[in-house]
Sequence to fold (209 residues):
Amino acid sequence: MIKEIWNTLSKIDVNKHTEKKGQFTYLSWNFAIGALMEHYPNNNYDFLHYTDGNGMVKDYIVAPDGSVSVESIVTINEVTKKMWLAVTDFNNRAIKNPSCVDIANTKMRCLTKNIAMFGLGWYIYLGENTPKPDFYTEEQVAEYSKLIEHECFKGKKNVVKKELRKDTTKPHYQKVLDMMKQRIEEFEDKEAESMNQDLDNQLSDKIGA
Fold:
């Protein structure tokens, strides 16, 4: 099934429908969807949605440092593939607190790359610094939001955020989360030790009396 789809879409010449912006070449999303509809009209695509800490449903992920990423999903003849993409400028730098236009444009770029996974214009992405498969996840962002509210991080939130900004990959986020959980564990152990010491002192005072 996927081989037939790839053989069909990968043979389409997309060179007349690309545009150079910054240091990268982009395929027109209008053309990509048009070609998809021409060959596979029963296709289906959507953007993944997430519920944030306030209960709001969004079609993008917001990282603690203000950067944003989106995810799309495309199905052709029961073959489904996902793609993810950070909201960046044309030099591939993450845009902090992007506008709705930035997000909307990135969604269509993400969808176009998603379609390229089936063969359409795949060769124009060779050599481009596309988002890594281990990009941070919504679950990690949610866990961070919960951990950072612990009292041991009072007055230290900016330090943790600065560490997160160094790298937006999943392994780095997990490393920071593990460090945060270790810090919480150490803090609570000291609190428990201090509490036990106070109890011991109180008992000693009563026995001495």
